[in-house]
Amino acid sequence: MCLAIPMRIVERAGTDAVAESGGVRKNVRLDLVDAAVGEYVLIHAGYAIERVEEAEALETLDLIRRVYEAGTGEASDR
Amino acid sequence: MTDIPLEAFRSPGLARSIAREIAAVAPDRPVTVMHVCGTHEHAIARAGIRALLPAGVRLIAGPGCPVCVCPARDVDLAMEAARREGVVLATFGDMMRVPASVGSFERLRAEGADIRVVYSPADAVRIARENPGREVVFMAVGFETTAAPIAAALASDPPLNFSVIPSLRLIPPALRFLLGKPGGRVDAFLLPGHVSVVIGRAGYRFLEVEGGAPAAIAGFEPVDILLALHDLLGRIFRGEGGPVGNLYGRVVREEGNPRAREIMDAVFAPADVAWRGIGSIPASGLVLRRALEGLDAARKLGLRGNPGAIDVRPGCECHRVILGEVEPEDCALFGGPCTPRSPVGPCMVSSEGTCRARHEYRRIPG
User: Fold this and answer.
1) What is the pTM of this model?
2) Exposed, middle or buried: residue B310 (CB in 10 Å: 0-12, 13-18, 19+)?
3) Cβ atoms within 10 Å of B315's Cβ, excluding its own
4) Is B290 helix (H, G, I), strand (E, B) or coil?
5) Which of A5, A49, A66, A76 would you mutate first to test chain B, the one with the most B CBs within 10 A?
6) Whose C-alpha in B27, B74, B173, B199 is 20 to 30 A from the C-alpha of A19?
7) ipTM of this predicted complex?
């Protein structure tokens, strides 16, 4: 029910927009979030509910890779 | 235009690496972690996360499935509306098979009622615009995540032939209730990522102040969930409460989505409401503000409601499953008389219901 998926805005006119993910396009509303064409937003029940922050996503992945994949044991001490 | 490598959060290799670290920090006593989100239950069951956890760690599902906690009284009210001449009932698909006191939306539709499944509240409003001669009643079920889009739809001048049956529920009051409940101690909470998008990490400050239990916000990919579990189990191991963790920073901000909350606040007011099989929880629901009472289907259509609504059918343990008191497999009806095809309780209906998720992804013996 609280399923939401990240999609990229490909067209926008006011609060109406078209978002795309994996080749699937959907009409979405931007009443709750301001987002420009090219940005990733999280879509729930036809509405964008937040922007997906690229920098945050990359930082999290980078951290995971350093801490967990390197097997430094650093994670155990956190 | 770059691509955010979101698929990495589904990487089995990364998930296994984190699971190894979880094994290293997991306390050597039995520990219970509760999530309160149907989407988490579905993701956890599908990815087989429980099998990756150390033996002493119990990951249980709390009252996080909106369809499961929607009281029969509200479903009955919607059925009463749908039986009225000229009414179209619009609902999310999850609600179709939820048991009312008698029957379900699905059965009522088979009997000829005009009940339409919508993906978005905006679709329900569109149906109203396209059918000016009909009253379109939208069954507004959901937590904060869904309340925000519903509020936006109600705030953008819906036509006069549109109304709602609000059955919206809030997560923080439910957490407070769970903490205050005697017995069945929960050691930590895995917090719902998409509710948190709306209310922010700030929405859980009371967990830090009241010193309830360690808690961490998690996303829905296997890596997201394991990261949060690692954070929680590490904190239990070290005996730290600590601040509420946010392991879903790519969409959850400290203050959540203020615009969404402003719109919700303009449309809805908090109220004491019932959770199916659990009872009333203070300030745990949203009702229409007085200025918008014209959108209230019960008032508009003069619905009588069903004072004798039946939340729990004989033998059904759904209400105890969603409090984490029993596992779905402990229910005598599970997989026998109660299956996704003919659900007895609401937990077997939605793909997010604990019983349904467990039934769908249960391991075949041998």
Assistant:
1) 0.93
2) middle
3) 12
4) helix
5) A49
6) B199
7) 0.92
